[in-house]
């Protein structure tokens, strides 16, 4: 459920080195000679029976492809595809070596689907192609010289012994390219390869250009961005070569015949799988990017990203300040950080940043021959040098990397990482001017959304649409504070900060039942505040006089003790001004109780749906509440270390503090997920009226289901009406259809609750924008709905150009897409909270 947990390494090292699953070599040949061919249906099998080559059909496809897969591993795991962009349909093709010595896939009519590059047949004798036990398919001339090999043309998989990178003498760039989809091996949008400009680094890129992830320069032991790589692991050995003729990364599985391992570029992540000997499935060993800080340039130029504190963590390096603080509130960091005091060249010094991933080295220069001290002198002597670092940390620091342009994509690691020395004006150095300092790196914190561009295609296209007029690499940010092993001090506008400053003293109290029972008069009905999706809530008063909200979880949460405690610890780490704070828990027999801070003004539904009290919330207050909820939800979805889907977002779960600031409650009880790109099918838990169609009908929920609920909530806040009875004009049965109708009539402002007072001019445009964003959120298709990041940006940015919403996914009046009488009938019930245990 939680991302980034890797199996303990020891476990992997102890894998027995036994091959139990490879079938004994079949009688099939491993070679194709000149003038012979391999027909569809026949296969080559490598001498040791490890790999098999032949024609295959991917799941959910009808086309044939020539590929290589592991023999004896089911389901078939394709590691290489020849004709990935030329599917064979409507014909039967075969593989042969043609008269001039090229491998060719052609059908009987001579139509060529694929061929290896024309080879140089000046060698002696007839060429032969052989499938090796390494998975390499090699075409050799009669003299044994390699004419062509599949390892030089990777698909999406890196096998042991394959090289990822460049042969500089021939200009060959070996990189991985994703499959377009699991059923379509044609080249997808993401690539993973080595960039040899400046100091070489690995990059995952989108569309061949936009960087998604960067693993940093090789430091002699590992990539700077992957400090957990173990250079001397007895099973895996990594090697990085960078000399005049070659720049590549490779790994070998060392003397361990039983460990089968492969790297796959799967959508935008690099995944390493191992097949344990005797195992029954691939297990994911690790996967990159690991977290938001791995997303390229997450914190902009001169920013530092750090997730160690458990809260979103972007900051400016000490001596730098947000270039455009106003934009930070709109989460727009495109301007990055700017230097406080200009450099004056002669009087400058260096600030030491410890334990970091070195910034992008595309424009950096390296000199391996000098010492780090000489590097420092060289940097100091050249006014255009902005930072330096050792180029190798193997056997002590040595060598020199120098940056003279922007420092981009720095992250801090809780352990491991390297030292980076950044040039600052003397007056900005924290102490003893000039010397490397170990103290006080003041960081203002913000979070960039650049990662969102790259999270998924749906997201990508949405953003493209959203910000077409605003340049390409928009990223956004917000103020925040965090602590970590770099001492940090939050700066500036505290208004939007979260409470993670309190992370250090994060203590979850374990209350005993007697205390809880006493504080709530033994759960007396008069202390009951309400009943939510996950249980009843009581008002309690602790001995010190502190008022708390006590949530008694209903019995369906049949978690084990350890699991429950675990989850409570995780929930307690989710801290944000727009989330209700968890103070502790109580476990007693079957009882599971959560204790939260108490919110004076109870829940939002008490105001917006109450004719008397709704006047207390004027438009600007309502708009602030909408923004606050968006911010809290965004934190849950994206910024917190654990991606959390709320699953029961509704007005009753938005609590208001003394100053009417909204705080999302009940988020903790939703499951904690590691991966927001997945949809999960679990128990359907939620509230009708707020549930997205795909969730209510199929039990498929994702962050987009929360987005749907958010959209409903916004319409409710604007209109002051619940998403059920608007029976005003007969056939209008839901708030969504009502809002949609008004929107299409160009009269969105009419949705505004007539009792709402407030601020004249912008009101009209703000209301209109809220309605438009809400309608985008409640669109029928989950893929069409924006992510919360885009939602937040759109709400806070008057200039944002928004797409036109499509038909909302509401219960009745679903138009021609409707397939489900059942849905309509269940959906028009009111908004009681229901629990459907799913049957899939
Ligand atoms: C392949 O066929 C061509 C033409 O039929 C012939 O000239 C050549 O000698 C053959 N090569 C081998 C290795 O049999
Ligand atoms: C063999 O295939 C290569 C590559 O497609 C092609 O250039 C060459 O002309 C072919 N040779 C013959 C004799 O068809
Ligand atoms: C083909 O081989 C000859 C002799 O081995 C060599 O001179 C020539 O450069 C090679 N051509 C290519 C395209 O590799
Ligand atoms: C990516 O990986 C996931 C899980 O490992 C798998 O379900 C999915 O099919 C993969 N996608 C592609 C395009 O291979
Ligand atoms: C991909 O890049 C090409 C040019 O390299 C560009 O024309 C195209 O619009 C890009 N596609 C996307 C989806 O960004
Ligand atoms: C790996 O271990 C061997 C022997 O223990 C040692 O000689 C070698 O220097 C080590 N390599 C690295 C990169 O630490
Ligand atoms: C570069 O390194 C590779 C692998 O160690 C080696 O085979 C090659 O000869 C080296 N090239 C040069 C020019 O040193
Ligand atoms: C640079 O800073 C040093 C020390 O603060 C000062 O002595 C010197 O005059 C400054 N030089 C310029 C050109 O401003
Ligand atoms: C490298 O330099 C180019 C050209 O000046 C610039 O466009 C690019 O942004 C720079 N990249 C980095 C990471 O500094
Ligand atoms: C200073 O650094 C820049 C950029 O690395 C380089 O182009 C220039 O030659 C250097 N100047 C001196 C005097 O070394």
UniProtKB/TrEMBL annotation:
Keywords: ATP-binding, Cell membrane, Disulfide bond, EGF-like domain, Glycoprotein, Kinase, Lectin, Membrane, Nucleotide-binding, Receptor, Serine/threonine-protein kinase, Signal, Transferase, Transmembrane, Transmembrane helix. The chain crosses the membrane at residues 441-463. GO terms for molecular function: ATP binding; carbohydrate binding; protein serine kinase activity; protein serine/threonine kinase activity; ubiquitin protein ligase binding. It is an enzyme of class 2 (transferase). Residues 29-152 form the Bulb-type lectin domain. Residues 345-425 form the Apple domain. One of its GO terms (cellular component) is plasma membrane. Its EC number is 2.7.11.1. InterPro entries: Bulb-type_lectin_dom (IPR001480), Bulb-type_lectin_dom_sf (IPR036426), Kinase-like_dom_sf (IPR011009), Pan_app (IPR003609), Prot_kinase_dom (IPR000719), Protein_kinase_ATP_BS (IPR017441), S-locus_recpt_kinase_C (IPR021820), S_locus_glycoprot_dom (IPR000858). It is found in: Cell membrane. Residues 1-28 form the signal peptide. ATP binds at residue 551. It comes from the Eukaryota. It catalyses: L-threonyl-[protein] + ATP = O-phospho-L-threonyl-[protein] + ADP + H(+); L-seryl-[protein] + ATP = O-phospho-L-seryl-[protein] + ADP + H(+). It holds the Pfam family PAN_2. It is a single-pass type I membrane protein. Residues 523-810 form the Protein kinase domain. One of its GO terms (biological process) is innate immune response. PANTHER family: APPLE DOMAIN-CONTAINING PROTEIN (PTHR32444:SF183), BULB-TYPE LECTIN DOMAIN-CONTAINING PROTEIN (PTHR32444). Belongs to the protein kinase superfamily. Ser/Thr protein kinase family. This is Receptor-like serine/threonine-protein kinase.
